[in-house]
């Protein structure tokens, strides 16, 4: 059973929380705690050996915590997700394979693409694929069609697995802190389009990828995880794109594991990650 | 103030410990906790904002903890160390520079070498250097001379910074869990002498270094930290030795930072590291 | 067009080889060269812009090179491979996905498993799967059944993608330098079975994986590539196995890319890798 | 003997160059070659076993190469450098230690600081230190004082080892492609001042450092090498600065090794690095 709590910091929070658990004879297997002094914010993640009555526990914890504390107990062991794609296969295929073998930590409900390219791979894994073209319609119409499809499945998260359309603030508002994006760059370098071509022309010796929650500012949401790999003068822009796909796949897989395992707290524009 | 505790695991330990701190209005800045289920062993490291009466606190913690709990409160902010060397400079120079600029987290009391090679660099930093040759004497006599020198300074730790003589069980017993060694290999690969030559002949694509506490078995003590770097077919055995020195310096520096900052627990042949 | 040559070293080899190319107005896009002084062995890989008459070129190169030179011109742009598996999916699924999307650099002809676990994933990608059980038969019979299946497809390489049976010298002799294995360890640490359990009990802070050609000695063939990742005290043996699967997938993918792109030379027990 | 050449690309360059070497019975130990198709530019670095008459060789190479080819033969085995510093010690100390033990690949002629902080460490290594304050004078006067000091020593390179004043285009023009800077960021992220504070506020999960040649644009010169390390939510801005110093030291050391070993070509705003 996982318990995650964030609230304003004050003396005695760990004692108060763990006393509640001890009262119920609950054993803490692992405990991650962090205080952000700048924000005076307290974060705790507890992995408890035994199951317990979540409603009762939440009430007892509320009694000892500050008002406005965010308490989540026993999050769904299996999250549900929708995936948005365009044409590139690498992130989606990795998700589909893990989903098929039961190691994703979530269940893929559907895939929505603005091109038909990835329809067949979804069919091979018996995952519903919906083609929602962005052509010959307004962005609002396009996004509403996507939202409708997503709402059919009530997913916990929507994963942008190389979805190449910029989403409007309205769309983002529909899925507050539920949108996870893989950005093909080591943010904040090379914000925006064609980062690998930018990287090539700058002659960088590292390229990277960033997984983040999506907020209204382009490429500006809370970062979940990021990695870099070495490149050199022998890499063309296309070689960088190819190498970038490997790192994008790895970074998104890592981010999803952290999110689905309830290891990420978001507060303002930053994350606290209990690995 | 840092508080570190290890003891047999049981329900309610975190609650009991943090209740003691809350009673004294002590604020926990960060808390690392780990339970080793295989060993039924509990480890906790608390970084507390305010100072407090260490003796009183220790007594109160003892009252709520199992017998045989190991409690350390407010460890010396500045450890004292002795360094043993042979001829290679890279680890020692790194330690001397950090010591000189006050960023080592410990204070170098003396350096003991079985060759005179590194005498001058010590003199330049005003650190006492003692030449204790291993030649024309038994290992017991050699080691007793070193022990005598070390005992003059009562260091908390003895760092083997590329000390190339194998130490006897008797010597090790004098400094139980106080001896930190940098081993020129990614243990457990290439135990023993000339690991880089072994690595060269095996054609490996990575070499590494390992910092560990020294126990009686050669290269077998609890590992503190280790790292690897890529090598390739263009590396001669000498090139591997040269690259290895860079990684040895980095790994030992990292290990010493962790040890001096009281982030390492040792139990049996393993470490728990709260980074 | 790729040209790869290895031969005993002597003065003037690069001049002799490149003069042949210049005579035909062939432009060298990239050139990797290495001389192993210990072995007095010369290796060169040339990426030539234009196609050319391979037979004529090979003859002209032979005329200017030492006897016994190994010359390969214009290797098949698309290699054919067979894959051997047991129960673990991660390496096979990665190969099948890349094969399906045309980015593997080779074409998967068939998969042979000693368990039926991975039959379905192969079916989903329309790849023939053959179940060859090792039960109730001698190793010789078992291996002969596999060899027969492989021979139907005449693959250039046989990839052991987590194939968990030890192969006999006879089997290995059938596929000299055609067998590529992913070993679940940073060789030469933890040779043999259950390396992650060995790693767990040793308390290592890094685990790794090694891709290598298979020779008769267990885990002793020429290493193609290897990588490590950090682990810590919170990892159970099972967590290490899980993390190990990620690194195994990445290391095997990298090794196959290098092999299929003709970037690996093997001589005695080592590789020369032109990345 | 190292030979480095860059020139416009054309068919037959490698053959022409290596024929000259073969004529003199010179043996090529290693050869790095690169063609930048976008720029139609050819780069070659040859490590030749035997010494030779450099003037004669250069003339013979000129005869077979395009006009305007840049040929450097037998570069000084020991470069001379000047170092500019402000207050931070980590990069300078690393350079002084390597210089003292003869492993820098260059000889430190003098250190110039705009603060006196690092005077003592230079004195301990018998290296001349000049205090050139930037206070109460124009930038032109300040820079001219530095230029005068540097000119006394005629160094091959000037290393900015955490020199915190922005240099004018006039200063840079005095030392074209001789100025090597370590920038406390993974460029192009966080250009300019206080990159670690920027990184902290953005909540990044990696920080990095970049070594580059200095051109007139701030932080915009050709990149030599760069690296990143992982950080997390527990890092304050000061912790990032501390971790950054380790990576800055490592990156600058690597860059200097590459430069002093004649492994870097610069063309326009990019480097070609033969590692």
Automatic annotation (TrEMBL), chains A, B, C, D:
Protein family membership: Belongs to the PurU family.
Pathway the protein takes part in: Purine metabolism; IMP biosynthesis via de novo pathway; formate from 10-formyl-5,6,7,8-tetrahydrofolate: step 1/1
Functional description taken from the UniProt entry: Catalyzes the hydrolysis of 10-formyltetrahydrofolate (formyl-FH4) to formate and tetrahydrofolate (FH4).
BP GO terms, sorted: 'de novo' IMP biosynthetic process; one-carbon metabolic process
Superkingdom of origin: Bacteria
Organism name: Mucilaginibacter polytrichastri
One Gene Ontology molecular-function label: formyltetrahydrofolate deformylase activity
EC number: 3.5.1.10
Keyword tags: Hydrolase, One-carbon metabolism, Purine biosynthesis
Protein name in the entry: Formyltetrahydrofolate deformylase
UniProt xrefs under HAMAP family: PurU
Active site: 219
Catalyzed reaction equations: (6R)-10-formyltetrahydrofolate + H2O = (6S)-5,6,7,8-tetrahydrofolate + formate + H(+)
Residue ranges annotated for the ACT domain, each copy included: 2-78
Top-tier EC class: hydrolase
């Amino acid at each position: 059973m996982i318990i995650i709590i964030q609230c304003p910091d004050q003396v005695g929070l760990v004692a108060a929380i763990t006393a509640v658990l001890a009262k119920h004879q609950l054993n803490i297997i692992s405990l991650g705690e962090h205080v952000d002094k700048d924000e005076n914010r307290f974060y705790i993640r507890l992995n408890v050996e035994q199951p317990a009555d979540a409603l009762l526990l939440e009430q007892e914890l509320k009694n000892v915590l500050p008002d406005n504390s965010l308490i989540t107990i026993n999050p769904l062991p299996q999250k549900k997700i929708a995936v948005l794609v365009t044409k590139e296969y690498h992130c989606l295929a990795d998700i589909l394979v893990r989903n098929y073998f039961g190691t994703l930590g979530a269940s893929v409900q559907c895939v929505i693409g603005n091109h038909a390219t990835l329809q067949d791979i979804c069919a091979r894994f018996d995952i519903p694929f919906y083609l929602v073209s962005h052509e010959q319609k307004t962005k609002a119409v396009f996004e509403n069609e996507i939202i409708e499809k997503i709402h059919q499945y009530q997913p916990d998260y929507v994963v942008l697995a190389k979805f190449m359309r910029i989403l409007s603030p309205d769309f983002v508002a529909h899925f507050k802190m539920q949108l996870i994006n893989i950005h093909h760059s080591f943010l904040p370098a090379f914000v925006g389009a064609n980062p690998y071509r930018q990287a090539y022309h700058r002659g960088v010796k590292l390229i990277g990828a960033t997984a983040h929650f999506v907020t209204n500012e382009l490429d500006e949401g809370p970062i979940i995880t990021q990695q870099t790999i070495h490149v050199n003068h022998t890499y063309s822009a296309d070689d960088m794109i190819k190498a970038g796909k490997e790192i994008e796949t790895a970074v998104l897989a890592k981010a999803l594991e952290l999110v689905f395992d309830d290891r990420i707290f978001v507060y303002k524009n930053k994350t606290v990650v209990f690995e």
